[in-house]
Specification:
With 271 residues, this protein is mainly alpha-helical. The protein is built from 12 helices and no strands. The chain is 60% helix and 0% strand. Helix 5 crosses helix 6.
Length: 271
Amino acid sequence: MIELLAKHPALYELVISTLIGLGVYAVCALIVIAAELSHGGDLRIYRTRSALIDLAYAVFYKCSIYNLLVFPLYALLVPRLHFLRMNAMADMPVMWSVLLGWLIFDFLNYWTHRMQHAIAPLWAFHSVHHTQTHLTFLSANRIHAFEQLYIGVLMLVPAFLLGIPQPRWLPILFVQIFSETLQHAQLDWSFGPLRWLFVSPVTHAIHHSAEGHQYNANYGRVLAVWDVLFGTYVFERGPRRFGVDGMDVPERLGVQFIHPFRLIAARWIAR
């Protein structure tokens, strides 16, 4: 096995990145589960079919099954994007490059997420994430493969332009994974006055609400400040229903994969 990895640097990097990603995710998951237990959370929800479906998504992405499938595309695409390499932040001090890189990508993620709710074909794929009617920390992984693909390709452009060295992505990766895991947890945390700055479980639960004025709000990925600045911030207490009214998608992976294509076809036929 070691000899095989030594002969294939790309495979070696994939294995290392997968192990790091799994380690980070395991730490985040344990912290969230401990928090849920300490606040009276009902862990029986993790035995439901919907949670197991989300676990399947987690295995698909966190164990790099998805990465192996899309590797040929990236191997073809990346060399053709080298003309974008400006490495604008490569020589910056580590702390500033990490902080500024995180702010830039979080800003881009806000607008990408907002467009996913505003543009019908993008919403068709993103709606899979909103089909979950019982949120758990695993729900962060419920992302259609095509959405994951086009987001990854789009983010290659700023990644090349900024040129942040790979080791500096680790703190950004940890903050992002921990935030997304916490946001979907069974926790009634609003972060108090910090809710205007960071996305909390309460504000992200609002984004998963079945009410249209709520799920078309709170687009921030880690920072809520973008929603505050651009007028898409909503904060309302109280119980809520999750999912999308009129969009009943069974808890089956095959059906969820086909679901966006059905939406797009139905809209095209209706024209």
